[in-house]
Structures are given as C-alpha cells and as structure tokens.
Amino acid sequence: MRGRPNESQEGGTLLxxxxxxxxxxxxxxxxxxxxxxxxxxxxxxxSLPPTGPHSVRHMVLKVQPGQSGRPIHIEVWLPAGRPAGxxxxxxxxxxxxxxxxxxxxxLEDLASHGYVVAGxxxxxxxxxxxxxxxxxxxxxxxxxxxxxxxxxxxxxxDANRIGAFGHSHGGRSAAAACLLDSxxxxxxxxxxxxxxxxxxxxxxx
Length: 205
Fold this sequence. Notes:
Layout: E1 6-10, E2 13-17, E3 26-29, E4 32-35, E5 56-62, E6 73-79, E7 87-93, H1 104-112, E8 116-120, H2 130-150, E9 157-167, H3 169-180, E10 186-190
Parallel strand pairs: 7-8, 7-9, 9-10
Antiparallel strand pairs: 1-2, 2-5, 3-4, 5-6, 6-8
Helix pairs in contact: 2-3
C-alpha cells in the first residue's frame, strides 16, 4: 500500500519524497546492462541494496498537464547529494496497469550507477486498443522529457545523453518514443511487442 509522501518545495516545483521499496530485476555493470527479469517475487521478499557507488534520492515531480491535456506524473530516482557533473537521463514506461514504484529496485539501481531515472505513471484513457495507447504513452514520455529539461532538475541532467526504456506495453511505448525523437539516443524494449507502431514521424510515413 502506498503511503502519503512528505511534500517539499524545490525551486518552486512541488516535490514529494518517500522511501524506496526494492525488488531487484536489473543489474548494471559499467556500461553494460544485464537484464534479469524477476517476476512473481513474494510480497515479503527481502529488499536488496543498489549495487552502484551513489546513494539514491527518490522524489515525485508533480507537474501541470502537457499540451495534450493529460496530467504528467513523474517519479524520479537520481544520485543523492551534489556529486560533480551531470547525469544521463533515462525515461521509463511501466507495463500496462503498473506504476514506476513496482519497478523501484530496477530504477533505484540504475540511479545508483549515475543516472537520472524518470518513471511515468501514465494517466488513464478511454482507448480500446493497445497500438494507439502505445502512441499516446510515447507522447507522454516526450512531454516528460521536455518538462524535466525545464524543471529544477535540469542542472543535474546531461541533455545530450537521453535514453528511453520500458517493460511490456511500456517497452512498446518507449520504442515508439525513440522513433519519434532522435534526441533519444538509446532505447530498450523490455519484453514488449516488436511491431512498428503506426506513427506520424518526421522522417517518414
């Protein structure tokens, strides 16, 4: 059950912080990401600590709706304190019906290795098919990217190193976002469909 976060102000943007719950499903070694999907973990399973050199800060970024009118709810994991330099940004889209907190071990571990990880809790919609929903979620990811680059966290983000990834339907959506935006330079579709979603792309039909 998700508790009510403690809210604080940072640079005029409302942020909420809360403890991180961990059920590990990713490990990263240097620049190579080893994916080890771990489903069906018992609710009482022991949490594992992140494997990277950084301690991790978790916050909820509450922002105004994007141009589409859809609210954008972003959970962020990032290296704690004030380490030198900027960090790559990773945009994450969960599986359908899931939230970023369900993947907190994976996202926290990536942040411990020096990434700003932004997970989206996609708003509900009235669509009756997954292909248009993947396109819609892709637009959510792109809107979140722009909002983060204008947020108080922009000083922590390397805007030249942005990636997107997701699980299941979120992986399909992340792949669509990569097709739409050439500024996203790395992409991982984690157990999602591999079809080419019909999109209005700048480089083709």
